[in-house]
């Protein structure tokens, strides 16, 4: 039986200006800090159930170190290691708890050039009394500060790697299901929205042959429950002098979006709600042609197609 | 004592394609029809209390015939007539009920070139049982069809008339209070948001020396109660193949907006919510400089500054 | 390998007054009709992807005939048949397309007394041009009429059957995962919220030893995207003279709710949004004690604990 | 010409536990503090334009000292003084700036027993850079903390005074217009919703012959822009262990409500949105009969009619 990924776990981010990044993610976005260790800050949203969904540390330049994914079982970690080595992919073993909250894991580069970590074991730290939700099924009190999203949703990766091998690997080796995709007139996949969960995407992978380095990150995304939360986010961001793109609605994924960039790391955050869930076991991926790209990206609202602002990506290697 | 205007009453609109306009205003916007008489359709929103807030009839070209304003008292109609004639302005007497629901009125041209009708007496027709709200303080059931705004909010007029005389007339003769305004580096008012009510504006008047005819209409506006209603409106419009500008938020007036154009008349409709009320009797008009125009127009969201779409106006004479 | 259920499929409902039920579900709730065959009406929401999520037909009394569940693979249907027979449960084979849109299925009674149908094959009928969404990933235009929910969410079943055998069967034979549960001081499960999907529940099963017949239905639930949609639903329902319970928020599942009853069948519908998704593969079910039942049911808002209105259930056999 | 009141100004509140009240109003409700002087804290919402809309100080028991109303002109203050004395009502002159931000005023008791202060002159203190809105037409940044309402809306007063004289005084002497009212089968006004603005009510006055002292306060109300803001408020309140009534919708005034009580003073706060504006100069007050009282109070949602919680009032003298 093939090993399986259960969910997106966390993003390990390096910032060129840690203080700015912490103000952005803690005070403006409104994430909670689980702990700080060896200069790395571990953050999560009020409805995230694991140790952290984002880590940030100081570095020379803003970039993503790796992206963590939790497997379905403990055995899946080793099974993925074996499977990847059979594919000729170098796999590193990472000691348990080296990353706080994360047990034994394996680390490797996907063909798109991004580093993924796979793990199963996790620690769930207790929450301080004054920050803990009165709800047993919720981690922190909601609405404590800033925009206050519920949980990590997905990542959007760009790559200059050859398209078909990359998407095949994601589907065949890692088990992602293609949910929606954009196809060129020549029949190449230009972008794929893929998931192991019932979300439309845990990861979007965009083919960008022209990108300066192979593996890049376009954005990470946090989920909010209601459309109006996105409008409230816009107010909060403007009051703190942020530029952003949105609000608008994607046709692809049907999600309401707002994109804003962490001034410390250059990492873009998509505030995200709406969208739909896929329960059908035989889902037929929705195909969008090149001529539908603009409509697919912007069903209505402030357009992500036309803005220079959204073309920037940060390195993810 | 000076006569006073109480409120914006209605817009009398001519459409080059009446059928298209009726589909737009009745099915998409979701206005109710009070009555049809002599080919003129009288419409209003579910929370409008008067006979109609919009009339539409077939004509050669889309344009606004006149804009109706209700006075505070019956005596104010004649008093305004006298006052206007003292200003050298030609005043026509209009027979009561010539416009269904509207009593005796006077008609005249403001310096901006727009025709205003002033009236006090109104008829309030009974509402059909199946369309009547169960609420005693509400006219029709809400949410019966389409976007379903609550009530008429304001009009936005463009003019090539000389700026200072026009704004002075609005304030000194008609009693509008300037609430916010945009001023050129030379000290000319470029746009004024004015009201007789506690809204920021019942009328916005924009100085456009370059406009092809003197008196034009940029949009009429209907109010919705909640921000999400604007997002729902965007969904409804796209499903029916409409292009639009928005959603976005004005800095001036703090309102959430979406602009869409009636394909029959070319009349633009602003779907509008948020904003603020002015209760202070000594309100100091908020001044915005030319360099702040773009910020003033678009605090965030889909920009009205950059779109050709919103530059179009229809004749209002 | 054990067969698996992928998702809740549909509810087959019998109404004592079909006309009333159709007005309720089509005009007030705002479901679309896929087809009518042999006096049975097949309905679904604008975001449902399958043939129907609700069928209604005339009968002597309002009751649920059976509840359909789609399996993960075609082979799972037969595999479940075998598994159930091994458990000593009688299994009926149902011919393909006997129920429009639904292929070969098996029918059986779960220990709670409810009849479940398991199927995999489905037909996806084309949608009329004028009702079809402009979005490729959405079935119908949203907001066409009434409350307009997105999709079927879950069912809530009551039973007088012995508690522990019932919950064990759901988990061990059918593969439902317990997500949250309510436990008596004596250690009996009083209610369980269980899912095969990442929703908190596809089915809630409530132990009611005092219930007049063994298998009953408390409600079926349709999902709306935004909290405000529930408030808009309240307005629509009152304008049409419906009594209801809500809006309120459950602590268990964190969902915003409104309960209203179809006057034809007596079937209660929960309009539902908010809640959370479970991606953790080792989710620890959240336990609520008897003393927390009221808090668990009503975190805030119009209380379902105190209302006679919500105690009514209809037969489900 | 009769003097006129322009608007509700502020409530002067005494708390039995100042610290609790400050936590409630500053951190939970989210009001901003303009200044603290002589132990009195002056607060306002982010969209209030005047010095303060609420003052709180320590005292032996929670009660309202007086309610401030701003007049339309400076001359109106003296003119009201004269008018009141002609009615045989004792009028006190209050020195300018004795209450910070408030100029010369007069103080008197209305027949209902409540003390009103009338003033025109105000001071508008500058706002700290880091709390000031980037919007020129808004006082503070919105959404800085807690529930974050926009502005003071209205007060709801209870009295055991004889009904008809009380309502007559409010209308004839103070110039309030009756907008909606509840009438007993014997023809006595039981409650009146009255305004000098275009709101349905700046003050509601409820006749309660059984009340222990003559003049009492049921609630003060702050306005929020969107319905969802009320639901977010409910979440915030529960997370901080507050009991409350709502959300629900009044038929009278059409407003969405949530009632929560300051644990320091016992002063109830209504969080309020929706409702409608009255622009018609000849508005006919909407009459509700005794049998419609429950429907009038609770159109839907958590009922204010049935809850002991909302029967409590505090003294207002």
TrEMBL record, chains A, B, C, D:
InterPro entries listed in its UniProt record: Fosfomycin_Res_Enzymes, Glyas_Bleomycin-R_OHBP_Dase, Glyas_Fos-R_dOase_dom, VOC_core, XylE-like_N
Domain of life: Bacteria
Keyword Oxidoreductase: yes
Boundaries of every VOC domain copy: 7-121, 151-274
Matching Pfam families: Diox-like_N, Glyoxalase
Keywords of this entry: Aromatic hydrocarbons catabolism, Dioxygenase, Metal-binding, Oxidoreductase, Repeat
Subunit structure and binding partners: Homotetramer.
Family: Belongs to the extradiol ring-cleavage dioxygenase family.
Protein name: VOC family protein
């Amino acid at each position: 039986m093939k090993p399986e990924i259960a969910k997106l776990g966390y993003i390990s981010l390096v910032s060129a200006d840690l203080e700015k990044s912490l103000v952005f993610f803690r005070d403006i976005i409104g994430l909670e800090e689980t702990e700080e260790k060896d200069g790395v800050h571990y953050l999560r949203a009020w409805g995230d159930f694991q140790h952290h969904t984002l880590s940030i540390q100081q570095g020379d330049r803003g970039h993503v170190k790796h992206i963590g994914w939790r497997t379905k079982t403990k055995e899946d970690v080793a099974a993925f290691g074996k499977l990847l080595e059979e594919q000729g992919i170098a796999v590193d073993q990472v000691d348990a708890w080296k990353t706080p909250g994360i047990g034994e894991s394996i680390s490797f580069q996907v063909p798109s050039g991004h580093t993924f970590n796979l793990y199963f074991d996790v620690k769930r730290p207790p929450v301080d009394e004054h920050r803990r939700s009165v709800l047993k099924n919720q981690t922190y009190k909601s609405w404590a500060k800033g925009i206050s999203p519920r949980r990590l949703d997905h990542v959007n990766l760009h790559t200059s790697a050859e398209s078909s091998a990359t998407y095949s690997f994601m589907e065949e080796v890692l088990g992602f299901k293609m949910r929606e995709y954009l196809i060129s007139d020549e029949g190449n996949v230009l972008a794929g929205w893929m998931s192991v969960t019932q979300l439309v995407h845990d990861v979007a992978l965009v083919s960008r042959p022209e990108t300066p380095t192979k593996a890049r990150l376009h954005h990470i995304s946090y989920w909010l429950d209601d459309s109006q939360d996105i409008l409230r986010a816009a107010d909060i961001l403007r009051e703190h002098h942020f530029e952003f793109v949105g609000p608008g609605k994607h046709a692809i994924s049907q999600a309401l979006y707002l994109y804003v960039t962490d001034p410390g790391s250059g990492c873009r955050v998509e505030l995200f709600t709406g969208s739909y869930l896929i329960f059908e076991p035989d889902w037929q991926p929705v195909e969008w042609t090149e001529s539908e790209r603009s409509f697919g990206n912007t069903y209505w609202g402030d357009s992500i197609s036309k803005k220079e602002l959204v073309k920037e990506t940060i390195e993810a290697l």
